[in-house]
Design goal:
Blueprint: H1 2-24, H2 28-46
Length: about 50
């Protein structure tokens, strides 16, 4: 029960911070990160380093 309450309030704090951060910044860095990460995943899959 205590863990549920603590996780609820920590989630409230994090969501509040994230909404504030997003309102002050953009997602360009995150977008480039996701594109590069996606390319890395595709290359590792295509070369057989990772099997899904």
């Amino acid at each position: 029960m205590i863990g549920t309450v603590v996780s609820f309030f920590s989630a409230l704090v994090v969501v509040h911070w994230l909404i504030h951060f997003v309102s002050q910044h953009d997602f360009r860095g995150f977008g480039w990160y996701r594109i590069i990460f996606g390319c890395v995943i595709l290359v590792t899959w295509a070369t057989g380093l990772v099997t899904w």
